[in-house]
Amino acid sequence: KAGVTQTPRYLIKTRGQQVTLSCSPISGHRSVSWYQQTPGQGLQFLFEYFSETQRNKGNFPGRFSGRQFSNSRSEMNVSTLELGDSALYLCASSGRVSLDRVYEQYFGPGTRLTVT
Amino acid sequence: AQKVTQAQTEISVVEKEDVTLDCVYETRDTTYYLFWYKQPPSGELVFLIRRNSFDEQNEISGRYSWNFQKSTSSFNFTITASQVVDSAVYFCALRNQAGTALIFGKGTTLSVSS
Q1: Which of A73, A81, B76, B79 has its CA 20 to 30 A from that of A116?
Q2: Radius of gyration of chain B (CA)
Q3: pLDDT tier, A97 (very low <50, low <70, confident <90, very high otherwise)
Q4: CB contacts, 8 Å: A106 with chain B
């Protein structure tokens, strides 16, 4: 079974630009979560999508948004990039079939975003 | 509020030594889930184990073992006879029953030298 894939793997953007990151979950998984990893703040939850609906959102500004498609693929968008947005963005998929059961999350390799 | 503390920032050992990574968590929930992930230099987080709050049995998987103690809110991870390939950052994480977000500790960087 193929794992979680993320594209692109590396990205360099300029302040003020916007960026879109893509994540394809493990086949059959309907839940996709996004995390930001920085040296200072560590791993922080951004949001989760389940069956095309955002189910939970972390404490990030509205510049961070996402969506999920009918095939469970997800995209994350960051508008008006700031230097502090430089981070490793990790996507995780989970074989969640209902809202009341917790499943482990499997992570992709991440997209390393550098904002200059 | 939920919180995960990994007090050990960095640990260095020599191959074949045993090493224990500590994890202490805080939560008011009665049902919760604990996880350990490994992050090698490639960056991908690799799932190692999930433990439910109502199951305090310790678990062993090859050279890996986990000790879950609700009385001390700890979920420690031991690697027996460490190998160079074990070098990585290890994260402990917490998730409650209703939530979907993993709350991660800051991680422990393990360096195993030959």
Answers
A1: A73
A2: 14
A3: low
A4: 47
Q: Which two tokens stand for residue B98?
A: 């209703």
B positions 16-55 inside 8 Å of A (CB): 33, 35, 37, 42-47, 50
Chain A and chain B share a number of CB contacts under 8 A equal to 53
pLDDT in tens, B53-104: 888 778 888 999 999 999 999 999 999 999 999 999 999 999 977 667 899 9
Enclosing H/E stretch for A1: none
Rounded to 5 degrees, what are φ and ψ at B23?
Answer: -145, 125
Give the other-Cβ count within 10 Å of A112's Cβ.
Answer: 16
Kindly give the pairing relationship between strand A31-38 and strand A5-7: unpaired
Please answer whether residues A43 and B104 qualify as being in contact, where contact means their C-beta atoms are separated by less than 8 angstroms.
yes
Specify whether the backbone of A15 is left (phi greater than 0), alpha (psi in -120 to 50) or beta: beta
